[in-house]
Design a protein that fits this description.
The structure is a single chain. It contains seven helices and two strands. The protein is mainly alpha-helical.
């Protein structure tokens, strides 16, 4: 028995999702991950240094560590990572959480969802929201899971709708 060529192939669909358009880099990350923060910062810096800001796009895909690990990221673990990784590239912007422990973010899912929703407006919008939310947590130490933080981030992104 042969398979009809008009019938969708599941593997082809998966391959299409994993094959970005030309000049697009897929980035699977969690906004909470300090290792990803360093990598994303370096990708932005390198793209800019090479003069490729308008040529190469980043397609951010959610990789929620809290779902992979079955729990949210604990503050002590994140703080210890910042102490070690922050020295690798201080320009990435690193700040230990300054708020009370009870205000420490318990999830990154709403922020990851906002990044994916921004893709409806294009990769540039998604990149801008992603970078804005990332900086709000790592540089300013704001709880990006809160709706006002996400809305403020969207409102401050040039040319983007909140």
């Amino acid at each position: 028995m042969t398979r009809s060529t008009t019938q969708p192939n599941r593997q082809d669909g998966i391959a299409a999702q994993l094959s970005p358009p030309a000049r697009t880099i897929l980035i699977y990350s969690d906004l909470w991950c300090s290792f990803a923060h360093l990598a994303v910062h370096r990708l932005h810096t390198t793209r800019h240094k090479l003069g490729l800001d308008t040529t190469v796009s980043f397609d951010h895909r959610a990789f929620p560590l809290e779902l992979v690990n079955g729990t949210s990221s604990p503050r002590p673990g994140t703080d210890s990572e910042v102490a070690a990784i922050g020295r690798l590239d201080p320009d990435a912007g690193w700040r230990l959480w300054q708020g009370p422990d009870w205000a420490y973010p318990c999830t990154s899912l709403p922020a990851l969802e906002a990044v994916q929703a921004a893709q409806e407006q294009g990769l540039a919008a998604s990149e801008a929201i992603h970078l804005g939310l990332r900086r709000r947590f790592w540089v300013v130490a704001l709880t990006r899971s809160l709706s006002p933080v996400r809305t403020d981030c969207a409102a401050q992104t040039p040319g983007r709708r909140p």
